[in-house]
């Protein structure tokens, strides 16, 4: 499945399409180069889902927790700073990943050994004129 983000002005429509496609899947790895728009897209998804808190990158906290308007819990991970799997285990990553709540993960390759088999890869690629292609596997 593919979604196109034509510009920052249309990103919320793209986020809405993503939400419509996720079904009952809960754990998503957002993949892409630095600056591809992973955090921005996750922020838009959370906003469309009615998260009232400010959504920002959990670069230093590793995981942020949000509540959607419908009561669903969303965990947003940024695993960029994780160097050893033990660091993820120490912060309780497995409990989050297997909680049944939504998990949006950036730099998931750093915690690959503990990711569930049900993981959905979301690949974001920048194309011409600032557009992004979002490919959901």
Average pLDDT, rounded to a whole number, is 95
Strand content: 25-35%
How many domains is the backbone divided into? 1
CATH class: Alpha Beta
Shape label: globular
Query: Would you report the number of β strands?
Result: 7
Give the SSE string.
EHEHEEHHEEE
What share of the residues lie within helices? 10-25%
The CATH homologous superfamily is named P-loop containing nucleotide triphosphate hydrolases
CATH topology: Rossmann fold
Largest sheet: 7 strands, mixed
Measure the end-to-end span.
7 Å
Structural overview:
By secondary structure, this protein is of the alpha/beta class. The protein has one domain (23-124): Rossmann fold, CATH 3.40.50. The chain has helices at residues 11-22, 38-48, 85-90, 93-97; strands at 2-5, 27-31, 63-67, 73-78, 102-106, 120-126, 132-136. Strands 1-7-6-2-5-4-3 form a seven-stranded mixed β-sheet, covered by helices on one side. Strand 3 and strand 4 form a beta hairpin. Helix 1 packs across helix 2 (38-48). The radius of gyration is 14 Å and the shape is globular.
Quick gist of this model?
This protein has 137 residues and is α/β, with parallel strands linked by helices. 25% of the residues lie in helices and 27% in strands.
Fold topology:
Layout: E1 2-5, H1 11-22, E2 27-31, H2 38-48, E3 63-67, E4 73-78, H3 85-90, H4 93-97, E5 102-106, E6 120-126, E7 132-136
Parallel strand pairs: 2-5, 2-6, 4-5
Antiparallel strand pairs: 1-7, 3-4, 6-7
